[in-house]
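Progress report, Aim 2. The chain analyzed during this reporting quarter is listed below.
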Amino acid sequence: MGGVLESDTTAQIIAKAQAAHDAGGGIVKFPGHTFTMTQSLPILAGVKYWGVEPVLAPVNPTNLIYLGDMEWNYVSGTVLVGNGAFNAFEGNKTDLASVPSDIENTAISSAGIINIGLDGFVDGVRVGAVNTMGMVWGEVRNVYAKNCSGWGVFLANFQHLDIDNIRTTLCQNGQYYGALLPGLTMMPGNSDIVNLFNMPPRDGRNRRLCRGIVFEAGGVASMLNQLNVSCIQCNAMSRTILSTTATFTNGSRAITVPSGAEFLPGMPVVFTATGAGFVAGQGYIVASVVGNTITLANDRVSSPISATAGITLTLETYGFPNMEITRRNSGARVQNSRFKHVDVEGSATAALYTEGCYYNHIEISELPGTMHLSIMARDSARNEYYSFHSGNTDFDGASTASTYFGARKATYQRGLAGAWIDESAAAGGNRVMAIGGGQNNGVGGDIHTRSLGFLYPNAGLGQRVTPRDNSITLSGANVGAWVFAGGTAQTWNLPTIADTTWAVSMIGAVYEIFNVGAAAVTLNTAGGQTFNNIAGKTRVAISPGAALRVTAGKYEAGTFFWLAVYPTMVT
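Predicted structure tokens for the chain:
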């Protein structure tokens, strides 16, 4: 264990870390003091930097509305201060052109950063890069970063890492957790990540250009795999909307805007009106920015869209999403993970953006008060999305294998399978329940309630059809259409109607029998119950070419009988 003195220089602290590493591992322990740094501290295998957890004070303690959800000042504890020209902590930060043959030897094992505040760096923490490993079997806990010109925390290619209580504010970008290795090399992840907080800066810069909390897969078939993430919060408070003109040229991908400096690749935007091949309210992604010309695509990896008309539309954006589960390359995935208690308050064009997101469980606990879309999903299949706060969703066709539960208003592109409260179809302030099987793209799901509570299907309802040419006693599990095509007369029996409890009730059971055969089918009731309440009418012969529909019912006195309709079939 190497104790850091309050008078130690950065070089002396680095020397103690190197000595601990050379000895096989140890702790570099900081006192509760502010240290002015002159260069980055290296992340070394076996070395844990351990300070006194900083005490924070809200910047504006008189505003109690967001007292714990705002910027802070350091009161005491271990705080490292930089001059804005270097990273606070770094390890394996350089991208490599290819994966080295000894990739396993690049992993930084059993390292840690614990109880430390950071102020005034490029990146607060920068470990891992393209084609090189990051931290494994380590921990990053109680790390606070502010005033970073890059990322507050950037962790790539980590595995079996414990990450807890990471807070970033006044940083150009918040927090990044990524897999930047080819999928055939390794699938990073397999980590617990708890208590993440970020607030894009409210210090006069263009907050729309600031990224929030990002989980990303990059590289050839890269996979960020098996994360258990909970309590994620990114508050984009006071972020204002950009509403500007976008001028299209027919057949061209180039879109002219007044200022290209307002945009960055990967940013979602929407249009206020439909035209030139773009749909109002649906999300699009900025693909490129050159001068005052941008291009737009459906997602981050597809080709830009060519305009179908030469017109001018109004484009709007609140900037980057509050939270992203996304990819850099086609075929890359964030997968097999759980994201619980996702709090994306403030304002957003896409509060949550998912792309290349597969086999994940995502629970949204809080949505922005002002937004275009609550969830914008591209190529995000086999996920479960939950949001019981009402918002707008935009799922593309490649995302239809996912399910959605909760509440929502507007639906763009695909509705998805699931069940939700649909506020866009509400009348008189009432909310309606909608059920979807993933086929309907319009308002209301595949089945929803309308006036006075009746169910309305947006697609035709079918029924089960069962062929049967010999005798049978029907049960509650046999409702539907029955087709007889036999040449020998048969006797079929109905069940006894009961209605003592909901669990055993037969009321409303429907059977339709179609005789397309060459002999009659005799249908008998059970328990002396009649057809159409006609005394003694307990048997009906269904002739070839005829059909019979019967429904189990009862009248006010409680007598059970079969409501029978006996039409002639088409000849």
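The mean pLDDT is 92. Residues 244-317 form one domain. These observations will guide the mutagenesis work planned for the next reporting period.
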